């Protein structure tokens, strides 16, 4: 088979011409912007996926989603053969391919082929998935054109969650060793492991097997139905926010991002006192838990809470197995200070802090035998090294350990199958949390009582060019604009347990401000004051932030 490069420019010129003058960057989770500006980017990512696939000699995934963003946005990210986010060194290439002029595209592709010594005769399959955004089908068509232009074979998985796509890619590349690369295979793997761990006793002490589920009016609402069918009475998932495609309701006043960033109960879910609820985001790769108490006070259990729950449980089981496996936890600067104290001081699990973006957390987690990573926004999972899996498999089978140690090893092996190791997966994480709460006999209040969060606040500031903000030290320190970090330091000093940082978002055209302090009033004030400094020193536009 030979690939003709001529179609590359012809397709671009006739069907997918570059429509945006300014450059767009491969951000925290790929390209993300107004859907109407993305046609040519999608086509070009189809081209790049084929190059990456031939270079890696493995199957590559392309996911079309803008996750937590509003319905009018869309985005695209590439998934590497292990089911992970595309290697960072290729992000620059992606940005280059996305931004060259149409008549430079063919040469850019030729240059990459030459520089990376890519064998263009290799037959490759590119898996394509999309969320429920109305713009997704036509954008998928553009990706397919890109794949075909370089003689790749597109395989369309239709509407799926982002973590399902990561799972499919990994399954295909491991010849189904990781699982069967179909939706059915995914449901079967997760549900069988969950049921095995739960056994016949659906409730346990304070734990009740009922949860209210906010589907964010997205793909997470569609796919949870397959779990409802399979789980039945074992776990009663009551679905809310399942509006039709194109109703404009995706992530609107609901979903994990809304609940976490606004710290509010979502619309569309009934408020039942002390009832455990969960919200996923628009592509179901994040989840947060929450409840309203009898006084209608809202309580949030976010990604930090999930991380601590999971790490503490894994630590218990690992010690029951008697095996020597190192367990570590990875967070970002957004992690609540109280959670980090709890992990280091009470759980005595080592913690690493990395920049925002699952790609950074995932890679750090791989350094441990068992790496738990979660962003405070509810995006995370657990990774297990080959060493850990080998030891557990031997322990579960062999006679070297006591019976209780063998049982613990078998339990941990089943737990691995409830987890989607490739990326944060809201539904797999839901099943994991439910498994742990059930095992501990805990209700959501028992879970919450493990430590007390410091009040915290997230704000957004709109500036002319968010790239004027640069950071270091896992985004905890601001390098430019000059003087901003000093101003933040001066403000933080005034508040007990004060902490604040700013960073440009990689998924929205804004700067994010995070603050925490010992009281809610002080935290709100600190956040607003830091936001004002960003507005003043980083070229704020529109209305200045309000100072509480
Ligand atoms: C994506 C990334 C997350 C990140 C989030 C917000 O999530 O996968 O790792 O935390 O964006 O990023 P930023 O603060 O740079 O806008 P999602 O769920 O939107 O795909």
UniProtKB/TrEMBL annotation:
It comes from the Eukaryota. Its cofactor is Mg(2+). This is Phosphoacetylglucosamine mutase. Residues 179-288, 302-442 form the Phosphoacetylglucosamine mutase AMG1 domain. Binds 1 Mg(2+) ion per subunit. One of its GO terms (molecular function) is magnesium ion binding. The lineage of its organism: Eukaryota, Metazoa, Ecdysozoa, Arthropoda, Hexapoda. Pathway: Nucleotide-sugar biosynthesis; UDP-N-acetyl-alpha-D-glucosamine biosynthesis; N-acetyl-alpha-D-glucosamine 1-phosphate from alpha-D-glucosamine 6-phosphate (route I): step 2/2.
